[in-house]
Amino acid sequence: xxxxLLDTLRGINxxxxxxWLMRQAGRYLPEYRALRAEKGGFLxxxxxxxxxxxxxxxxxxxxxxxxxxxxxxxxIVPYAMGQDLEFxxxxxxxxxxxxxxxxxxxxxxxxxxxxxxxxxxxxVKASLPADKTMLGFAGSPWTVATYxxxxxxxxxxxxxxxxxxxDAPAFQAIIDAITGVTIEYLIGQILAGAEAVxxxxxxxxxxxxxxxERWVIAPNARIVAALAARFPQVPVIGFPKGAGAKLPAYxxxxxxxxxxxxxTIDPLWAAxxxxxxxxxxxxxxxxxxxxxxxxxxxxTTRILEAxxxxxxxxxxGHGIDQTTPLEHxxxxxxxxxxxxx
Length: 341
Known about the structure:
- This protein is α/β, with parallel strands linked by helices and 341 residues long.
- The chain contains 15 helices and 9 strands.
- It is globular, with a radius of gyration of 19 Å.
């Protein structure tokens, strides 16, 4: 039997709202920190199937989240495409060689780097309660490309944006290659047990409208269409962070089954402007979850009420911060679970 989250993503507007939190498996949990201290660095945890499955399950056990989001990283795709990947303490992820310095053709794919991720999905799905939804994910091609070109994250993705303007055919080849591997990767996750998947486009907000159409909407539409043709029952959530006024076009043109909203989006505007009946996800500011108290309650209720007339998955506008007090997460869940449409 589908759980509340899967029903909602499939378009059923029930009286209660499912809830999960982006980055819910991670550093704010003491059990995660203990396991990481025992096992080692982030990438080692991702590739330790039993450890990754345990981390994926930790917030489900502690809070009863309606979804278990795979513990992994969006940069597994470029890693499988042949770039080297390392996570440096205090600096974040680094990829090499950078595609600003070397041609895509010089990379040698290592598709076996995807297999341990599928094993994690399979292990989690086998232990997940029947009413909980197994969520897979991948980075959207534009966001993944920004890391592949520059080798690391940046404030405005200037190297990648400049490359896309300077040599659009070469950059199109990069986007096409990422799109193909992403489709393969998500198919593998679904075959392993993922019941819904999310496309994270963390840097979508850095693009002008025409570039947004080409580098965000078009490749995501290809991914959604490929998955829908093979797995029509598996919802795809699109999360184009920073898209702002471009969200309605993204929703219409990509064909996603649900759309994630970041914290900068007014929920009343989104409720009015997005296609009727389209499930939405979000969009509490993660800093409110740190602050807690009356304002957390007020803003949570405002979001719930704004989306009362459409299917709504309660979530944050981006990932949970590592300094979030555990008791505030519990308060949020009580608020959401106590509310009725």
